[in-house]
Amino acid sequence: MAAEQELNATSYIQHHLGFNAQSVGDHPFWTLYVDSLVTGAVLGIVATALMWWVVRGATSGVPNKRQAFVELLFGFVDDQVKGIFHGKRDFIAPTALTVFVWVLLMNAMDFLPADIMAWILTHVFHQNEFRIVPTADVNTTFALSLSVLLLTIYFSIAIKGLFGWIHELTCAPFGGHPVLWPFNFLFNLVEYVSKPLSHSLRLYGNMYAGEIIFLLLWLWAANSSWGADYFAGMISSIVLGVGWSIFHILIVVLQAYIFMMLTIVYISMAHESH
Q1: Is 55 inside any structural domain?
Q2: CA distances (Å), origin 213, targets 69, 199, 222, 248
Q3: Active site residue: 202, 223, 236, 268, which one?
Q4: 227-249 per-position pLDDT tens digit
Q5: Which of 135, 150, 183, 208 is the most exposed place for a label (fewest CB within 10 A)?
Q6: Quick check: is 202 catalytic?
Q7: Does the annotation count 188 as an active-site position?
Q8: Residue 115, Cβ neighbours under 10 Å: how many?
Q9: Which entry of 64, 198, 225, 273 is annotated as an active-site residue?
Q10: What is the mean pLDDT of residues 127-154?
């Protein structure tokens, strides 16, 4: 009986953590994770539509609650950018706002009940494997961090020029002597590699861990229903699930905020000269 429950528990977790992966080539690298792509794209459209809806109904008089909330969000993000970035904010502030809202919506998908969503996806959309939280997929977070890295390289070249950027790669921070060029380049290469790794893995690790905890709580309820402690297990899992959801709100918002702040910091560093 114990072995059967353990097998069921393993199958349950594997089912909810399975991706809808579609191969587009012979090599495993060329694999599209359809669930992450579709959910991320839909949430991006939803975020854009919400902003358009608010802006379309904005007035110069007394704002309604919807407009006041969005203005508060705009002001908050702009203040964060203003405190770090001291140049023109016509690009970086909207970028930071887009990153924050998009990542926040993708993180918030973790609040949807896993079993209910699995039933809907299986019986309505006929998708047996579909991960509903894009940021619990390292491919999504790494793609976002690589986009930020490309922006930093673009701004470094735009501000300093191509040769200025190359000069910075080879002559900072140890000096411009030709003997030091390889050491400078390796030092800067480590920095360029570590930024997207830490940027992506921090968000992925927190969201993946939160998803696992939700699954373990629901699994506990299912295991309890097999024994005599049915009601105790159900009540305990509901209480712990609600408690974890309340705490998880902080994680969802905080991780979106940290990802946005690191985006601002990295683009700001690209405008600075060493």
Answers
A1: yes
A2: 31, 22, 14, 10
A3: 202
A4: 556 666 667 777 777 888 888 89
A5: 150
A6: yes
A7: no
A8: 13
A9: 198
A10: 92
Active-site entry in 156, 206, 224, 237: 206
In three state form, how does the secondary structure of 148-161 look? HHHHHHHHHHHHHC
Amino acid at 9: A
To the query of whether residue 107 is one of the catalytic residues in this protein, the response is no
Dist CA 167 CA 154 (whole Å): 15
Query: How many helical (H) and strand (E) elements, i.e. helices and strands, does the chain have?
Result: 9, 2
Q: Is residue 118 part of a domain?
A: yes
Q: Name the one residue in this structure whose structure tokens are 């690191």.
A: 262
pTM exceeds 0.85 for this model: yes
Output the DSSP codes for 12-54.
HHHHHT---EEE-SSSTTSEEEHHHHHHHHHHHHHHHHHHHHH
The total number of structural domains that make up the chain: 1
Sign of CA dihedral 115, 254, 76, 74: negative
- The answer to whether position 161 is within a domain reads yes
Domain range for 156 = 17-270
